[in-house]
Amino acid sequence: MFDNPGHCSAVIELLSSPQRGDGWVVGYSAMAGEVDLGAVYELQALGPFALTRTPGRSQGMDLSVHPLTSPSEPHSYGYQQPVADAPIVADSKIAVVLVPGLAFSRSGDRLGHGKGYYDRFLARLAPFRPLIVGVTGGYLVDDLPVDAHDVKMTHLVDARRVWAIDQVV
Questions:
Q1: What is the pLDDT of residues 133-161, one digit of tens each?
Q2: pLDDT digit string, tens, across residues 24-54
Q3: Which end of the chain, C or N, has fewer beta carbons within 10 A?
């Protein structure tokens, strides 16, 4: 994971804007190679904040969402995540999802780690129309392979700015 003040500033700008909407901001606990947004989560006035939880092997394949203040435990990949029995944030209450990725395309496609956790999660949120913000550590490309189940980002954030997908140049 890496901490980049530019990414945090761009996310703060987005969360301070009227397009943010009302509701929870879902973040992630950064693992190796992902942008750490922990400094943003400390700004409680921009929340409320929640984190995703990757289920254990016997708990299915769907991410769950829990308040940032929930007790946490170590994930096998080395980051902290909410415990399984922490309170759940309802999908209908989510306004923004900050999504990590290995790479993003200029048209809003995302390359993840291949398990489909975020694609299933974001598809589940579609009826509620939250902002889906890809947080890129610098890998913005013209094209990525996509499958029918892949969910596009509505916005991208890099170390300099945040922009809506239709504004990507």
A1: 999 887 788 999 888 888 999 999 988 88
A2: 999 999 988 889 999 999 999 999 999 999 8
A3: C
**Residue listed under structure tokens 């990414």:** 7
Long-range CB pairs of 28-32 (<8 Å, 24+ gap) are 28/52, 28/98, 28/99, 28/100, 29/75, 29/79, 29/80, 29/81, 30/1, 30/2, 30/79, 30/100, 31/1, 31/75, 31/77, 31/78, 31/79, 31/100, 32/1, 32/77, 32/78
CATH of the domain at 144: 3.40.50.10420
- pLDDT value at residue 136: 87
Range of the domain at 136: 2-52+92-167
Whether residue 82 is contained in a domain is answered as no
Kindly state whether residue 63 falls inside one of the protein's structural domains: no
Q: In whole angstroms, give the CA distance from residue 137 to residue 28.
A: 14
Q: CB neighbours of 145 closer than 8 A, spacing ≥ 6?
A: none
Q: Is the pTM of this model over 0.85?
A: yes
Name 25's Cβ contacts closer than 8 Å, sequence gap at least 6.
15, 46, 47, 48, 49, 50, 95, 96, 98
